[in-house]
Design brief:
Elements (H helix, E strand, L loop, with lengths): L3 E5 L7 E5 L14 H10 L2 H7 L6 E3 L5 E8 L2 E11 L5 E11 L2 E4 L8 E3 L2 E8 L2 E8 L2 E9 L11 H8 L2 E4 L3
Antiparallel strand pairs: 1-2, 1-7, 3-12, 4-5, 5-6, 6-11, 8-9, 9-10, 10-11
C-alpha cells in the first residue's frame, strides 16, 4: 500500500491536499517566476510587512495585486498573509474580496485513497474547493503546503463564482521573503 504525505493547510476551511507518490516528501516544484512579477509583487507589499516576511520559516508567496489592509502573521512553521481588494461589480455594487495566502511545513503522515488533486496550478497539481462561498486552492510546492482563500463580500461577485480568479491569483503568486 502506498503511503501519502498530507500537509494540512491552515485555511479557514481546513482544506486538505493529499499528494500520493512513491516519494511522499517530494512536493511540487515552483513555476518559473519572472523577475518582473517578483519585483512588482514586492513593491505592492508595505515595507513593514516585507520585513516581517523575511523572518518567515517558510517561503512567503504574495499576490501580484495591490492589497489594502495587509496583515502578515509569522510563527514557527507557518505564515498567513491577508489583504483586501475592492471592485465594482457589473451592476454597480461595490464588493470586497478578502484574500488570504498561507504556507506551512507542519506535516502529518496519513494513509490516503489516492491523488485528490482537481486542477493544474503553479506548475503542478492542486486542489480547488468551495466552502460557504469561499473559493480555495491548496497545493504543495518545495515541501511547503500552501493555500489561497478568496472570500467575496457580495453574492454574485465573479471572483467567487468559480475557480478562474483564485487559480489565476494562485498561478501569479511571487516570493517576497522567508526561508528557502
Amino acid at each position: 500500500m502506498k503511503r501519502a504525505l498530507v500537509l494540512l493547510s491552515l485555511s479557514a476551511q481546513g482544506a486538505i491536499l493529499a499528494a500520493c507518490s512513491e516519494d511522499p516528501t517530494r512536493g511540487g516544484k515552483a513555476p518559473p517566476a519572472t523577475e518582473t512579477r517578483s519585483a512588482t509583487t514586492r513593491s505592492a507589499i508595505p515595507q513593514e510587512i516585507h520585513e516581517r516576511a523575511s523572518r518567515s520559516p517558510v517561503p512567503v508567496l504574495a499576490p501580484a495585486v495591490s492589497l489594502e489592509r495587509v496583515t502578515l502573521v509569522v510563527d514557527q512553521g507557518f505564515y498567513a498573509l491577508n489583504g483586501v481588494v475592492n471592485a465594482t461589480l457589473p451592476d454597480g455594487r461595490g464588493s470586497r474580496a478578502t484574500i488570504t495566502v498561507q504556507g506551512t511545513r507542519i506535516v502529518h503522515v496519513r494513509e490516503a485513497p489516492g491523488d485528490v488533486s482537481t486542477h493544474a496550478m503553479r506548475g503542478g497539481r492542486g486542489l480547488y474547493t468551495v466552502n460557504e462561498g469561499i473559493v480555495t486552492t491548496t497545493w504543495i510546492e518545495g515541501g511547503t503546503s500552501y493555500s489561497v482563500d478568496v472570500e467575496c463580500s457580495e453574492a454574485g461577485d465573479p471572483r467567487c463564482q468559480d475557480e478562474a480568479f483564485v487559480i489565476e491569483l494562485t498561478d501569479r503568486l511571487a516570493p517576497v521573503g522567508g526561508a528557502r
